[in-house]
From TrEMBL:
Belongs to the DNA repair metallo-beta-lactamase (DRMBL) family. It is found in: Nucleus. This is Protein artemis. Residues 287-396 form the DNA repair metallo-beta-lactamase domain. The chain holds residues 1 to 465 of 950 of the full protein. Signal peptide: none annotated.
Amino acid sequence: MPPGTPYNSFVLPYRIRVDEFSDSYKNSESYVKPLLHLLSHTHADHINGLAAKSFGYKVICSNDAKEMLLRHEVYAERALHENDMRAVVKRTFAHLKVDPWIQPDGTKFYHGSRDLLFALPLNTPTPFELNALETVTITLIDANHCPGAVMFLIQGDKGAILHTGDFRAEPWFLDTLSRNPFLQPYIPAENVPAVAEAEGPITYQPLEAIHLDTASLLSTLKVPTKEQAVTGLIELIALFPPTTYFFINSWTWGYEDILKAIANTFHCKIHVDRYKHSIYSHVSDPFLRSIFTCDPSSTRFHACERFDRCDIVSVEDYNYGNEPAPLSKVGKKVVYVNPIPMSESKWEMYLTSVKRQMNDGENVDSLLVALSRHSPLPELMSFVSLFRPRKVIPNTLIPALHGLDWACMKIMFADCVFNDPEAPSAYHDTEGIVDYNGPASDELDYNDGDVSFKNLMGGTQALQD
DNA sequence: GCGATCAGAT
DNA sequence: CACATCTGATCGC
C-alpha cells in the first residue's frame, strides 16, 4: 500500500494483509505475521515487497492481476530491450511462479517449482483456512479501477469486511453492487432494488468495516462518469480531419475505457508498444484483448511507450511562440490526449470551449479528458451509505496530516454508517479483542497512521508464530 | 560491494 | 496535470 496505511495494511481483526508484502517491520515489537496475503491490483504502490526474492507466501488475486503481475516489466528494462542492450527482459515478479523442468522425454521435475499467485474468479466465494481454528471466505468483486482490480469481501466468525482496494464508485457501479447476491446481506433492504430481492427477504447484517479507497478523499468535486468523459472526448476527436493522429497518454493501467471507445467509434485499432501488447493480449475482457496492434503505421491512434513514442507520433523539438503546430517525424499532425480529474461543470465548459475553437479554425494540438480512476468524496459517501457499515477505515492517509484526515473522515461519514448500539456485533462480542475506532484525539500527531496497532490486536504475544 | 528497500519529488 | 512512478539515498547481508 502507499505510505500512510493504518494497521500495517492488516484487515483487523483478521490476520490478513492487503497490498503490502514487505517484511520491513519484522523486527519491530508490533510485528504480527500475516496468515493470508491479498493483492487488489498491480499498480506499483500496491505491490510493495512482492519483488523481494525472499517473499514466499501465497497471494490471492484476480486472474487478470496474476497475468499482469507475471508479465510486469519496469521502464528501465523495457528501454534496454528496445535499444538492443538486453535480449531477454527481466520480469520483475517471475520468481513468484517457477514452472517445473520438463525433460525432452516429457518427464517433469517439480523440485523448486512453485506458483504463489492463487487466482480466483470474480463473484465466487472461496474458503481459506487461516489456521486450525479459523477459516474465512473471500469473494472478489470487480473494482472499476483498472484491468484485474478487485474489491475483497471477507467473511468469517469475526464478521464481514469489505476492502475496496482502489475503485471508482460511479452510479452504475453502485447499482451493480446492490444486485450482487453476495453483497445483499450487507445492504439495508431499502437500498436493494425490488427485482433483485425476488428470491425472498434477506436479513440485513451490517459490515463490520469498509476499508475505503481514500486516494481522493479530500476532493469534493462532483466528477463526470467515465462514460460522460469518454463520450465528450469522442465528440472532440470527431471534429478533427481524418489526417490528424492522436497520442493518448495512458501512462498507467486504468485508461482502457478511452481506448475501447476510440476503437469502437472509429473502427480502428490502437497502436501500443510490445510491453503493453503482451499485457493486453492476456486480459479476460475479449474486446479489450482485440483492439491493439503493434504496427504503428496501421492506425491514427497511438498509446505507445510515453517516453519512447513511435515515429508516427514522435514530435520534433518544439518551437515555442507563434510557430505552426508541431508535426511528427513523418510529418503528421499529432494531438496529445491527457486524462486528468476534472469536475463535471468544468468538463462541460471545456467541451464547449474546444468545440468553439475548432469551429473558429483555431489550432488545437492537445486535448484533456475528465477521467478519474478514484472516487472523490461525494461518490465515497454514496458508496458507504449503500452499505451503512459499522465503521470506515481509510486505505491510505496523508502522512503529513498525522491522523487528522482520519479524524475528519469519521465526522464526514458519521451519517453514512450503521449506528445502533443495541444491535449485536460479531466483532464486539468476540472476547478479549479490543474495539478499534481510529485515532483517539490524544494519539494524533504521534503515530504516522500506525495507530495503536499492538493494542488493537489485544497484544501481540499470542499472535506471533 | 551490491542488491534490496525506502522516501521524496514530479 | 496526477497520485503512480522514478530516482537517488539508505539499509543490510
